[in-house]
Amino acid sequence: MARPDKAAAVAELTDQFRASNAAVLTEYRGLTVAQLKTLRRSLGENATYAVVKNTLTKIAANEAGISTLDDLFAGPSAVAFVTGDPVEAAKGLRDFAKDNPALVIKGGVLDGKALSADEIKKLADLESREVLLAKLAGAMKAKQSQAAALFQALPSKFVRTAEALRAKQEAEQGGAGTPAPAEAAE
């Protein structure tokens, strides 16, 4: 029979897995408490970093429907539960791991899909959601401006062509009926 404190820990971890849209499993062997505190701050306000027990976390992940992390629960483990932008948390982990090689990113899960450590690093190389949305909006605005310029160019080109034809007709009609100035002088 499971002890009540372990059952409560599994229930809490299960809720965290279900509430987060991403989770990154790391090994923190060799990091000090102060370094872990710095890491928690670098993840941003939409992520929590918790040192976990492998057996309880494996049970919680399976209860949440995540079985792809089972092979990664070895050694001292900690999980970053991300409820906001996963790119921001991945960047925080990547940058912290560059400065502190003791932090090893094992893998993770994003919206139910398993991610390897390399995929998490690729995710960290992406720009933030806000920047990507701003670029998309700029591209859409540019296309709309191009379309507006095209639609405006067609009528103005038509008007210029019609005016050129009218001027040409006037020149042809005016030139045939009146004598040239050189002929009138004779």
Automatic annotation (TrEMBL):
Short name of any one Pfam family annotated for the protein: Ribosomal_L10
InterPro entries documented for this protein: Ribosomal_uL10 (IPR001790), Ribosomal_uL10-like_sf (IPR043141), Ribosomal_uL10_bac (IPR022973), Ribosomal_uL10_bac_type (IPR047865), Ribosomal_uL10_CS_bac (IPR002363)
Annotated GO MF terms: large ribosomal subunit rRNA binding; structural constituent of ribosome
Entry keyword set: Ribonucleoprotein, Ribosomal protein, RNA-binding, rRNA-binding
Top-level taxon in the UniProt lineage: Bacteria
Cellular component aspect of the GO annotation: large ribosomal subunit
Function summary: Forms part of the ribosomal stalk, playing a central role in the interaction of the ribosome with GTP-bound translation factors.
Subunit-structure text: Part of the ribosomal stalk of the 50S ribosomal subunit. The N-terminus interacts with L11 and the large rRNA to form the base of the stalk. The C-terminus forms an elongated spine to which L12 dimers bind in a sequential fashion forming a multimeric L10(L12)X complex.
NCBIfam families per the UniProt record, alphabetical: PRK00099.1-1
PANTHER family in the cross-refs: 39S RIBOSOMAL PROTEIN L10, MITOCHONDRIAL
Family, similarity comment: Belongs to the universal ribosomal protein uL10 family.
Name of this chain's protein: Large ribosomal subunit protein uL10
Organism: Actinacidiphila alni
Source organism phylogeny: Bacteria, Bacillati, Actinomycetota, Actinomycetes, Kitasatosporales
Primary gene name: rplJ
